[in-house]
Amino acid sequence: MEMDAVLQAGDAKDWAYKGEGAANLILSYTGSSPSMLGKVLRVKKILKDKSQPAPNCMVFSSHEQLLWGHIPELVESVKQDCLNQAYAVHVMSQHLGANHVDGGVCIGVSRDFLELVEKNVLNSRPTWRVNASSVDSTANVALLIADHSLFSGNAKDSSCIAVEIKFLVAWEVVRAVFIPDERDKCLEDLSKVSGLELSDFIELLSEAIFKSGVLRKLLATQKLDDHDIEGAIHLYYNIISQPCLVCKNTTDAELLRKYALLHSLSLDKSLKIVRDFLISATAKDCSLMISFRPRESVIAESEYDSVFLESVERIYDYKAYFIDLDVKPLDKMEHYFKLDQKIVNFYTGNGEVGKSAKGSGTVTKH
Q1: What are the helix (H) ranges across 176-266?
Q2: Key word Kinase present in the record (predicted)?
Q3: Whole-prediction pTM value?
Q4: Can you give the residue ranges of every domain in the chain?
């Protein structure tokens, strides 16, 4: 599908609600066009509360030009309003593996299409999502990607089961002091759908994750954040050429000496550290979609990777893709630092300072 293709009002009837996150509405294709079968459309949303920051960054500031200007495809994609697609392809796939990242393609959308789609799916959306956000009807493009919860492209394919793994961030772990844990119930429901015992399904999921190597790639990308926000925030101020507000509010002489070393780093070094921090932030905020289907014949060839589940003596094809690989705005660095301080203060107030507050590299404060 090319950029010059534009979805119009008449196409809206062929798209149904599939889900949504903070920044995007996900629609699945229900029509009959061969080129669209098995696809989902990622449509941008806007927050109704104007006091809240926009979830997406689709315009590069002059400082972001410094950060990403060495990747021409990113700079060009901003003009086409396809930054996140280019970022997934030209940045995140280099770290997470091109075979596990589907950048999709940008497709034009008309205002009439967006307004009609929003009206059609209104009753399918959770009330709290409707109250918080709406479709951005001023957008000119949407992202068309493969539906990685399917194999055949047929939504009625009952042989396929998909799992989306969302990696908990530290603030969500804190909230889990207060909310019931639903994870076991989800696994039980999945085992019912798959027809496998819970232990067998967990083994299948574990084998696929291990064989694919996706968590190893994910962890390595998360660990690009080797200065953490407490260090990277100083380099952020180096880049924007502003007085460091953290140093301004610090009276500890030893800390100030440590921070002075960070502020003495070159611009190139500062850019690399902050760039790696933002790439790491994307890796800590993404999801992993893994889909399975039992192979019909032991001797059958398949384009997909597979695992042999010994307990049921059956081969399962699988595919694993990272999703939600959006670029993080540079000016969100200050938000990350403030959130980090809230988390540290939370743990301090509960007498749990130290390892729990800082995490092990796979947990972050985004």
Answers
A1: 183-194, 198-212, 214-222, 228-240, 245-248, 253-263
A2: yes
A3: 0.85
A4: 1-147, 154-360
